[in-house]
Every structure is written in structure tokens, then in C-alpha cells.
Amino acid sequence: MARNQTSAEKRFAQSEVRRLHNKAIKSECRTFARQFVEAVAAKDEKLAEEKLRALASKLDSARSKGVLTRNAVSRKKSRMATLFNKTFKASK
């Protein structure tokens, strides 16, 4: 029966730890995004703006950790800002 080399086993364990860490960060970003969308749907401008700032911060944090790419973060922030502006700024 073939056995992985020790270094390969170590690399596998490291990859698994990183995968779980990245998964948690992505999940956190999705949670913040969902909270923002819910605030927009509730037409609560103050709460939505607060959630948008928190989401942008969380996305930037994920970018700095290498979990998300620069373009993905920019796209997500842009789409959320567009949603916010369409909902609250266009009506004024």
C-alpha cells in the first residue's frame, strides 16, 4: 500500500486548515452582504449605510488576506453601492 510522503501529508493538513479558514471568511462576507440587502429591502437608509460600510470593510479584509481577488472585491462593492444608490438616492 502506497504511503504519502511526510511532506505531502503536512501539505495536505496545511491546505485543509487554510481551506476552512478561507471558508469562514467568505461565509462572514456573505452574511454581511445578506444583512445589507435585508436593510435595503426594509427601506432603512441609516442601517443600510452602516451595513454597507461594514461589508466594504469585511471585503477589504478578505482581500488583504488573499481570500478574494481584487477584482471580485471591487465588483461586489460596486454592486452593493449601486443597489444602495438606486434604492435611496434616486428617490430624492
UniProtKB/TrEMBL annotation:
<dbReference type="InterPro" id="IPR036510">
    <property type="entry name" value="Ribosomal_bS20_sf"/>
</dbReference>
<keyword id="KW-0699">rRNA-binding</keyword>
<comment type="function">
    <text>Binds directly to 16S ribosomal RNA.</text>
</comment>
<dbReference type="GO" id="GO:0003735">
    <property type="term" value="F:structural constituent of ribosome"/>
</dbReference>
<protein>
    <recommendedName>
        <fullName>Small ribosomal subunit protein bS20</fullName>
    </recommendedName>
</protein>
<keyword id="KW-0694">RNA-binding</keyword>
<keyword id="KW-0689">Ribosomal protein</keyword>
<keyword id="KW-0175">Coiled coil</keyword>
<dbReference type="Pfam" id="PF01649">
    <property type="entry name" value="Ribosomal_S20p"/>
</dbReference>
<dbReference type="GO" id="GO:0070181">
    <property type="term" value="F:small ribosomal subunit rRNA binding"/>
</dbReference>
<dbReference type="GO" id="GO:0006412">
    <property type="term" value="P:translation"/>
</dbReference>
<feature type="coiled-coil region">
    <location>
        <begin position="3"/>
        <end position="65"/>
    </location>
</feature>
<keyword id="KW-0687">Ribonucleoprotein</keyword>
<comment type="similarity">
    <text>Belongs to the bacterial ribosomal protein bS20 family.</text>
</comment>
<dbReference type="InterPro" id="IPR002583">
    <property type="entry name" value="Ribosomal_bS20"/>
</dbReference>
<dbReference type="GO" id="GO:0015935">
    <property type="term" value="C:small ribosomal subunit"/>
</dbReference>
